[in-house]
Amino acid sequence: MQNESKIISIDNGYITFKMDLNIYSVDNLINKYVIFNDDKKFIGEIYSIKDNIIYSYLLGYIDDNKFTFGDLLKPSFKSTISLATEQELDIIYSEDSSNISLGCSSIYQKYRIGIDINKFFSNHFAVLGNTGSGKSYAVSSLIQKIFYESNSSPFKSNIFIFDAYGEYRNCFTNISRKFGDLNYRLITTDLSSNDNHLALPFYLLSTDDIALLLQAEEKKQISIIDKALSLVSIFAEEPDRVLEYKNDIIARCLLDIIYNNSNLQIRTQIVSVLSKFNTKDIYLDKQLKRGGWTLTLKQCLYINETGKIQDIELVCDYLESFVRMSLDYKKASIKKYYTIEDFYNALEFALISEGILSSDKVFDYANVLKVRLDALIKSPSKEYFVYKDIIDRNEYVCRLLMSSDNKKYQVINFNINSLDDRFAKVIVKILSKWLFDFATELNPRAKFPIHIILEEAHRYVQNDIDTKLLGYNIFDRIAKEGRKYGVILGLISQRPSELSEVTISQASNFLIFKMFHKDDLNFVSSILPNVAGYNVDRLKMLYPGTCLATGVSFKMPTIINVDLPNPEPNSSNVNIKNTWYN
Prior knowledge:
The protein is 34% helix and 19% strand. By secondary structure, it is of the alpha/beta class. Strand 3 and strand 4 form a beta hairpin. The mean pLDDT is 89.
């Protein structure tokens, strides 16, 4: 009998063919792999059958027992045709160095898909999909397998999870079941909880950190924050220890008021400043001598009937005696520990020295910082910045990773469910920056890999004004520079189109679950040129727990049924029937 298997047409990557096969006698062929045997074995995936004509698109080819993805090379019309065997599936899917399994092929359901730990976790990755599609389950399963399936203890792993809903609370409590030296730590923002509470030493916040915290919008505000930080150590210190520095600061401020304002403004503003900021040398009731007369500094500011301050020169001469041109303010920063209240005082003085008392324009952009800081101090959120030990940032990171009895934590879960979105975004950015800075200072670099996994990443990784305001966005910076320092981002999001394009464009591995929003599908299609439109369309129909896996860890885009985690995250949907009727 003549073999009727033949290629009918080759149109770019699409191949139409007939096959010497009774399609009614075999299991469903849709999405199965077919081999076009030529000088190489070309792999196609069947996507349609009509009138015994089979339609497929080209995935790649096998040559010398190695699979290469892509449709650049095409088979010839003389190719023989057969269905893929298990041996050929091994070549397509398997890696000899695969360390952990992700799940089973959705097409060949008994065939397990493995991933190489190094190829996956040495690159930024993204887990995308609608709510309820299985993202949290996949992330939990993936991280658990690092500890459950590894051949040796991943003791030096450092995985920081920012948990938007508290879903992962119990997912990693069993990571020591195979290797006893592994530990999990939960840090919560729920101040009523008995768990470890989040605490950031306020004195470790940089100018950029405080700018984020106070929602700065203009570069002029940055200079005010920077000035307040240069003053806060002096203002927080015991007066006698920094008297010379404080006198210099206050004297310069008052002289600036005198030289740049009208007489009435001079008196009002100096009284306002010295009512709050003064020393034992410069204060309102300080007595100044002029000839045979003795007047207080406040009396010297009286305005006579001609509208002049008659004794202003006496005040100026006295203040100028405290100005020291050679003072090194860095040497005055004796006190390394200061509170958020200390910074408030320093900020208030910085605002005054910037001219907030005399300029409505300055008041408009400057006073908002003071108002926001005051609101923070009066809110429960202030507790997140109470940290009484004196440490540096590197030690802070080390304390996150080590217990008081020197146990090393491999997974640190920040449960930020108690924070509103705006404040959570600030906290996530600050901590991510500290982790990145910690890694960049290590020598040799990348010796201490850090993974930052962001649940609901679209809340934090956005196209913000940070780049315009600070010169960078921390997540864009980590995305572009992090790999060489061993800092890897994991982005979990149900709205990929809202993510920073710079950040998501640097991801090299993707697990994409069901999604059907047009903007998100277009976005995914634009950032994944290797995923055919056919595969993107299939995203609309994926079952929960099934994903399209693609990237450097996968030889080609593959639909996978991801293994269930154990324990599972607390991310299941509400059961209306049980809730309403029980």
